[in-house]
């Protein structure tokens, strides 16, 4: 099955309060796009449940998949995402936060100077950081792509990171990336270019 090794099958999706509110609001439109006989076509059925710790999580279907996975022309698509596109709605407003961020993971933790955010991603290097992520994550297609022509993951997900944490987080990530590769900061790069033009 196409979704077996994807984020749509491997992870328990926790929902924020905003996720629950927005998901409840869009459900009437999503239901119209679900196949006949789908559990969530019933208006009495909700797409989330409370776990033993009273955290709201997305339910799973009988296959252990996210209930919003649809198959079209041999590809798996998200019913929430598709609904937003077809209805002219903002995807990031209605799609659960965890799904929008994938495969980026953010971990908030207290520090001496206040709350800090660890920005990382699911994969081989971070295996064991996340519950239920001990094996097989590296088989997800989106994590196998190592094409150097593509932007770094944090840049590709820059708009959603900025929306959640503000532009400062993206600037800090760029600074860390430059330090890691040996590239000078943007201000120094401009100065270096000016010297070259002057023959310095």
Describe this structure in words.
The protein has 200 residues and is α+β, with helices and mostly antiparallel strands. It folds into two domains: 7-95, no CATH class; 103-192, no CATH class. It has helices at residues 7-10, 17-31, 79-87, 91-94, 97-101, 141-144, 153-156, 158-165, 167-181, 186-198; strands at 48-50, 56-58, 69-72, 75-78, 104-111, 114-121. It has a two-stranded antiparallel ribbon with strand order 1-2. It has a two-stranded antiparallel sheet with strand order 3-4. Strand 1 (48-50) and strand 2 (56-58) form a beta hairpin. The termini are far apart. The model is unreliable at 184-200 (pLDDT under 50).
Poorly predicted runs are 184-200
**Radius of gyration over all CA atoms, rounded:** 20 Å
Question: What is the ordering of alpha helices and beta strands?
Answer: HHEEEEHHHEEHHHHH
Largest sheet: 2 strands, antiparallel
Mean pLDDT: 75
**Beta-strand percentage range:** 15-25%
Termini Cα gap: 60 Å
Fraction of residues in helix: 40-55%
- Number of contiguous helices: 10
- State the strand order across the main sheet: 1-2
Computed structural class: alpha+beta
Large-scale geometry: globular
The total tally of domains equals: 2
